Amino acid sequence: MSSAESSEQIIDVLLVFTEMALLDSVHREVEAHFKRPIEAARFHNLLDAVDHLEKAKKQYGLIVFEHKSTSQTILRAFLEVGGNAAYILCGPDATVLHGIEGSDTPIEFIQIDSVLKELSKTINRLEVTGKMAMMRREESEYILVRPDYLPSMGPLEATVYAQLIDGHYVPVFNKGDLVERQEIEKFLETKKLTHFYFRREDCSKMLGSRQDELERALSKEPIDEKATAKAIELSHGMVRDVVNSMGFTPEAQKVAVTSVSATIKLMGSKPKLSTILVDLKNKEGNYLTAHSLMLGKAACALAFKIGWTSNTTYFKLTLAAFLHDLPLNEDRLAAVFSLDKASESGNFTPDELKDIRLHSNRAADHARSMSEVPSDVEQIVAQHHERPDGTGFPRGLNSKFIPPLSALFIIAQDLIEYSQTFKNKEVDLTSYFDAREAYFNSGVFKKIFHALKHDQKIL
Ligand SMILES: [Fe+2]
Ligand SMILES: [Fe+2]
Question: Which of 13, 268, 287, 440 is disulfide-compatible with 449, CB 3.0–4.6 A?
């Protein structure tokens, strides 16, 4: 398989070079080889990379790294944690590989001074000998599934797999099985796993089932609230997994739009804030899903309060909420509201901080890829972590550059963050408006916040 033919496949790349300039050049060279942008995991030393590989749930296809020392100890440790990856060692001397070359690990050597010249040829050699291509085919057959929504599926609609340390996939729950949350948690705990896999081909079928379920829910009069809410939750979880493994496929887009319509129908035309702000922590299932659905409703309730009651506005806000955190791999990353605080906390790796920083734009890309979706949705999603005082991310825009609908969405997210501090008590809205008035006191935020606080309409 040549690199051009395989370009629709995903290959995860990890790079380790001490110097930033060389790291950048190698990254560009890898992209040039695969003929498309590649989000590589990048490190400056092997120990950090080993640390990452030990913790990462990701299987890399290609690892290009610098190793200037003659020590084999760290090298062996590094080759052990990379799973099925193909390696390219860049160093002064190939003798460091003596005794290692014969092992099962595919590894090539490049003299450090000719890395840029030799890289593409060397990658190609790994490809034509099937050392990377095999890995890629196997990777693409399965998609990662978060365990949270499996119990709400009822009888499983497809076989669920787990990945073994050697990279193979084994079925753990069969199609038709009824799995309880406790059973899943126990399994994950004993096997030290965090997630499962579905076969890629089963995912399209399951998205089809989500679509039917949502359409059925929408056609019922009066609406069955419990069944509809469950269908929306399941859809969000599944769309999230599909988007992150297969991209925003047309089927996934359709399910997203239908979920949004169902959410709006469920919410009714007069969404009330006080009934929406239920405690996220008490909710079973997935934090990110609950957070996204609640944010949509909260944003619409705020919109309603100031007289923005059109269906189009509700649709834009609810869709933006559905999409806004989809690219985040872990729920704890979605609970970050300040990049600075996250960075200072030391609880996040450089890669995770980067994922947080980039998720708004990645989610906006998803919005952009949808057909017939108003451009404000993309803008709301891209700006959902900006702040009126310019301290947000990724662009650090201040209130002058943030349009009204984005501003309202930002306030809704702030309100949700605030409401989380109330734990099991009812959220005191008056105290929220008092506490945050001074913060939202510039540009369009000031006008909206004032109207929200005093229940005035902005028309
Ligand atoms: Fe969020
Ligand atoms: Fe976010």
Answer: 440
Distance separating alpha carbons of residues 324 and 223, to the nearest angstrom: 27
Distance 363 CA to ligand 1 centre (A): 11
Angle at which helices 20-34 and 115-128 cross, to 10°: 40
**How many residues would you count in the chain?**
459
Q: Is pLDDT above 90 for 270?
A: no
d(CA 378, CA 452): 24
SS3 state of residue 177: coil
Distance (angstroms) between ligand 1 centre and the Cα of 63 equals: 32
> How far is the CA of 301 from the CAs of 28, 53, 451, in angstroms?
46, 44, 13
Quote the percentage of the chain above a pLDDT of 70: 92
From ligand 2's centre to the CA of 385, what distance in Å?
A: 6
* 244 CA from centroid of ligand 2 (Å): 15
Q: Largest Cα–Cα distance of the chain, in whole Å?
A: 76
DSSP string, 143-176: EEE-GGGSGGGSB-SS-EEEE-TTS-EEEEE-TT
pLDDT for position 109: 94
pTM: 0.71
Cα of 393 to ligand 2 centre, how many Å? 10
How far is the centre of ligand 2, averaged over its atoms, from the C-alpha of 359 (Å)? 7
Condensed to tens digits (0 to 9), the pLDDT of residues 364-413 reads: 989 988 888 898 999 999 999 999 999 999 999 999 999 999 999 999 99
Residues 32-38 have a mean pLDDT of 81
List domains and CATH numbers for the chain: 5-138 (3.40.50.2300), 268-453 (1.10.3210.10)
* Listed residues: CB within 5 A of ion ligand 2: 325
